Amino acid sequence: MNPTARPAPDEALPPQGWLGRLADWQPQRHPWWLRAAVAVVLTVLATWMRMALAPAESGGRFVTITLAGAVCALYGGFRVGMLSTVLGMLMVNYLMVKPYFSLAISDPREALWLNFWFLLTQTVVVGSIGLMQRHNRLLRASIELAQQSQRQMLDNFEHSATGMAHTTLDGRWLRVNQTYCDLIGYTRDEFMRTHWREFTHPDDLGLDQANLARVISGEIDTYTLEKRYIHREGRVVWVLLSISLMRKPDGSPDYEIVVVQDITRRKAAEQALRTSERLLWQAQQLAGMASWVYDARERLFTVLGESDRALGLPGTRFSDVEMLERTHPDDRDRVRHRWAAAIRTGARYDIEYRLRFGEDWHWYLVRGEFERDAQGRVTNGIGTVLDITQRKLAELHITELNASLESRIQERTQALRAAYDELESYSYAVAHDLRSPLRIINGFAQALDEDNPALSDDSRKHLERIREASKKMGELIDGLLKLAQMARGELQREPVDLSAVATRQLRELAASEPERKVDWHVEPGLLAMADPPLVEALLQNLLHNAWKYTGCTPHARIHVGLHTADGAREFVVADNGAGFDMARADKLFQPFQRLHMPHEFKGLGIGLATARRIVLRHGGELRAEAAPGQGARFYFTLSS
């Protein structure tokens, strides 16, 4: 028989034939009115049977009534039995005592004694039946309570979250729950055929057997230890094992109760904690950091672990007075004020100051937080201290370098500014002074042409080339002047409506060449904080560029709008004109550099260089995307 099997409810009181069922009858399971009705019917039926079997004068009037009372007591209990008895007495005296069908009695003395002894006898019989039924009820309740306790014990045993088993002293299993089997991966049948030594880790077997011997010898009654099992799959399972010895009434050993709890995760967590502590200690050593706790009642600092060695401290416990004495005189007031503020307001304690634990002063970064009681008083604190001497020395060195570097930068900046101003002035002067010789050359060329009508065609072509070269030279000079102007003066930022400026300029370009059909579109609401004249020049260069390079494109289109990429907003001027090769884009914004031949598109190569200088002066960026024959897109920002 399986020792863990639980009896079924139907097996609680096994049937014992009709006598057993009769003895087990429970009147309380039936309603009172039904039991009373049955008593009346049985009593009437018994009376009728008595009258049918023999005349009233034949004696034995109470025989069937006695039987009816006993049956009613068995069926309905003591009160129902007594009801049948009283009703039977009335019917006997009414129907079987002269004069018949009357309650008058001819011999009262005889009737009194007969009825008295009948009532007494029936009371004893019915009472005995009632006592038997009460005894049966109590017995059944006790049996059910015992069975319920047994079921609960078996349920607790079988469904416990911990492994449980009963074993003999030699290690044979009496019973085991499923949790224990699942713990080491065995089925119940396999487990029952296995000795516990077979799945115990060899290194833990000796300690377990030693403790078991102490239990059997009576030295101890129970023991608990952590040990390892070998799972059926080969992995190690850590368990907390508890063994208790149960004894017989005479004190001799009976069997053992085994309780095991899986602590593999706890052991793994403990190992991880030890590893973390070791790594923390190593990290503190590498970082030059120590951890501390503060006892407000004792006013005592204690360095945790062995982190005092990370800082080379002379000990692990310091009073707050001693710490203040070791503080640099220039830092004491600041330390005292910060500490008091943290204690009073609960603010985080975070300060850098100098301490001396040996011959030299060291800089430390000290941080801490405090815990308080219900009254708001500080009870303790915890924090860290980090040696930052090297960092402070480096900061001091950097500060000195920055001071000298700033001085040199100012000197170099002034020199560069002076050189730049001189170069700008020189460029402006050169460009301005070259205009007069060019006018003279152009004027003499025109005078030669007008004063010598007999010049040959070749001579006139030479004069025309002189005039065109001087004109182009003048345009180059104008470009140099424009570039110089873009770098001079200060920016005057104010709100500028780029949409309005672009719309007006595109209308002017359309009016200058009414024969061209260009589909242009400007997004509304393009606003920026910028210098209005410079923005005017910027859009004029970009839009003139787009208008020029769409001159040979059928269905020309120009778009001015806003482009957003990766959260950044850029203004864009796009066209579907000639475009250019991005491989040559490095020359795009250089002055007087062109990506197309002069016979394709006219120009000096100064517009995009001017546009880029305007954008840079606003602190923005100008970039381009294009492909030959697919137009170009110029993106720019104007940082405020």
From TrEMBL:
<dbReference type="GO" id="GO:0007234">
    <property type="term" value="P:osmosensory signaling via phosphorelay pathway"/>
</dbReference>
<dbReference type="InterPro" id="IPR013655">
    <property type="entry name" value="PAS_fold_3"/>
</dbReference>
<keyword id="KW-0812">Transmembrane</keyword>
<dbReference type="GO" id="GO:0030295">
    <property type="term" value="F:protein kinase activator activity"/>
</dbReference>
<keyword id="KW-0472">Membrane</keyword>
<dbReference type="GO" id="GO:0005886">
    <property type="term" value="C:plasma membrane"/>
</dbReference>
<feature type="transmembrane region" description="Helical">
    <location>
        <begin position="32"/>
        <end position="53"/>
    </location>
</feature>
<keyword id="KW-0547">Nucleotide-binding</keyword>
<keyword id="KW-0902">Two-component regulatory system</keyword>
<dbReference type="InterPro" id="IPR003661">
    <property type="entry name" value="HisK_dim/P_dom"/>
</dbReference>
<dbReference type="InterPro" id="IPR000014">
    <property type="entry name" value="PAS"/>
</dbReference>
<feature type="transmembrane region" description="Helical">
    <location>
        <begin position="65"/>
        <end position="92"/>
    </location>
</feature>
<feature type="domain" description="PAC">
    <location>
        <begin position="349"/>
        <end position="400"/>
    </location>
</feature>
<dbReference type="InterPro" id="IPR036097">
    <property type="entry name" value="HisK_dim/P_sf"/>
</dbReference>
<dbReference type="InterPro" id="IPR036890">
    <property type="entry name" value="HATPase_C_sf"/>
</dbReference>
<keyword id="KW-0597">Phosphoprotein</keyword>
<dbReference type="InterPro" id="IPR001610">
    <property type="entry name" value="PAC"/>
</dbReference>
<dbReference type="InterPro" id="IPR035965">
    <property type="entry name" value="PAS-like_dom_sf"/>
</dbReference>
<keyword id="KW-0808">Transferase</keyword>
<dbReference type="InterPro" id="IPR003594">
    <property type="entry name" value="HATPase_dom"/>
</dbReference>
<protein>
    <recommendedName>
        <fullName>histidine kinase</fullName>
        <ecNumber>2.7.13.3</ecNumber>
    </recommendedName>
</protein>
<dbReference type="Pfam" id="PF08447">
    <property type="entry name" value="PAS_3"/>
</dbReference>
<dbReference type="Pfam" id="PF13493">
    <property type="entry name" value="DUF4118"/>
</dbReference>
<dbReference type="GO" id="GO:0000156">
    <property type="term" value="F:phosphorelay response regulator activity"/>
</dbReference>
<feature type="domain" description="PAS">
    <location>
        <begin position="149"/>
        <end position="219"/>
    </location>
</feature>
<dbReference type="InterPro" id="IPR025201">
    <property type="entry name" value="KdpD_TM"/>
</dbReference>
<dbReference type="InterPro" id="IPR005467">
    <property type="entry name" value="His_kinase_dom"/>
</dbReference>
<dbReference type="GO" id="GO:0000155">
    <property type="term" value="F:phosphorelay sensor kinase activity"/>
</dbReference>
<feature type="domain" description="PAC">
    <location>
        <begin position="223"/>
        <end position="275"/>
    </location>
</feature>
<keyword id="KW-0067">ATP-binding</keyword>
<dbReference type="InterPro" id="IPR000700">
    <property type="entry name" value="PAS-assoc_C"/>
</dbReference>
<feature type="domain" description="Histidine kinase">
    <location>
        <begin position="429"/>
        <end position="640"/>
    </location>
</feature>
<dbReference type="Pfam" id="PF02518">
    <property type="entry name" value="HATPase_c"/>
</dbReference>
<dbReference type="GO" id="GO:0005524">
    <property type="term" value="F:ATP binding"/>
</dbReference>
<dbReference type="InterPro" id="IPR004358">
    <property type="entry name" value="Sig_transdc_His_kin-like_C"/>
</dbReference>
<dbReference type="InterPro" id="IPR050351">
    <property type="entry name" value="BphY/WalK/GraS-like"/>
</dbReference>
<keyword id="KW-1133">Transmembrane helix</keyword>
<dbReference type="InterPro" id="IPR038318">
    <property type="entry name" value="KdpD_sf"/>
</dbReference>
<keyword id="KW-0418">Kinase</keyword>
<feature type="transmembrane region" description="Helical">
    <location>
        <begin position="112"/>
        <end position="132"/>
    </location>
</feature>
<dbReference type="Pfam" id="PF00512">
    <property type="entry name" value="HisKA"/>
</dbReference>
